[in-house]
Amino acid sequence: MPRVTRTSAPDARARVIFRRLRAEYPDAKCSLTFRSPWELLVATILSAQCTDDRVNMVTPPLFERFPTPEAFAGATQGEVEEAIRSTGFFRNKAKSLIGAARCILHEHGGEVPRTMKELKEVPGAGRKTANVVLGNAYGIAEGVAVDTHASRLSLRLGLTDTVEPVKAERELMAIVPRRMWTDWTHLLIAHGRAVCTSRKAHCDACILFDLCPTGVQERRRSARPARASRG
Ligand code: SF4
Q1: Taking CB atoms and a 6 Å cutoff, what residues make up the pocket around ligand 1?
Q2: What domain range is 161 assigned to?
Q3: In 158-219, beta strands by DSSP E
Q4: The last residue of a domain, from among 118, 137, 156
Q5: Do 83 and 129 belong together in one domain?
Q6: Would you state the pLDDT for residue 49?
Q7: Which of 93, 147, 183, 210 is labelled catalytic?
Q8: Ligand 1 center to residue 81 CA distance, Å?
Q9: d(Cα 134, Cα 216) in Å, to the nearest integer?
Q10: Are 88 and 50 in contact (CB under 8 A)?
Q11: Residues 171, 81: one domain?
Q12: How many domains does the chain contain in total?
């Protein structure tokens, strides 16, 4: 088999990238805490423009106060706003949570649906949220969740050529094998937090350097002495 390098086809690179990241971050998984599909749906809606750590601080008292979709559906906007205020955009999020609870109660018999089509119609749940819930609560891969880390890394790795999430997802689905879709996001998030951060790509310490077209450009730009990549 020819060696896969940064100039290899995107699908060949994607497989090697996955394997390497899997070895580097064997425990990478959804960092939102949840006990049910409903709790994951709520946590994912709250995670928009907010860190997962913050969401994980807010959800335990939130679910103690509103333990079920019924409880959310019967809450006032003000009550929910107060409970989620620190996650930001709390007015819209409270509206989404109450709307989602009512939709799930009235349209889906109290169960979070298991298809992309149905989930996308739940208030507050776009395609990314649907992918997170389907993949992590139900083990169903209908797409690739593209969050800010997955978007940035896919672009830097030359696997996508857009920051537009739906288009980026389509490009990733074409090159990443389906069985890897859910973990793909977790692994890119782990690497995006540890090495290829939004503030700086630490290319000299990156296990993907030899597979990444951006890494070599960054190295030339910084003109620092090169360190051999692991591979
Ligand atoms: S080589 Fe640099 S740009 Fe590429 S993934 Fe690694 S840290 Fe990010």
Answers
A1: 153, 156-157, 195-196, 201-203, 206, 208-209, 212, 214-215, 218
A2: 10-28+145-222
A3: none
A4: 137
A5: yes
A6: 93
A7: 147
A8: 39
A9: 36
A10: yes
A11: no
A12: 2
Q: What percent of the chain has pLDDT over 90?
A: 91
List pLDDT tens digits, range 88-128.
999 999 999 999 999 999 999 999 999 999 999 999 999 99
The domain spanning residue 165 has which CATH number?
Answer: 1.10.1670.10
- Best residue among 159, 218, 229 to mutate for probing ligand 1, ranked by most atoms within 8 Å of CB: 218
**Tokens matching residue 202:** 């630490």
pLDDT one-digit tens code per residue, 194-209: 999 999 999 999 999 9
Question: 109: which DSSP letter?
Answer: T
181 Cβ partners below 8 Å, 6+ apart? 131, 135, 141, 143, 144, 172, 173
Q: Can you give the pLDDT at residue 220? A: 79
Which of 137, 161, 194 is at the close of a domain?
137
pTM over 0.85: yes
pLDDT tens-place string over residues 143-185: 999 999 999 999 999 999 998 999 999 999 999 999 999 999 9
Task: Mark residue 139 as left, alpha or beta (left: phi above 0; alpha: psi -120 to 50; beta: remaining).
Answer: left
DSSP 58-77: HHHHHHHHS-SHHHHHTS-H
- 């889906």: which residue's tokens? 108
Instruction: Yes or no: say if 28 and 186 are a contact pair by the CB < 8 Å rule.
Output: yes
200 within domain boundaries? yes
147 annotated active-site: yes
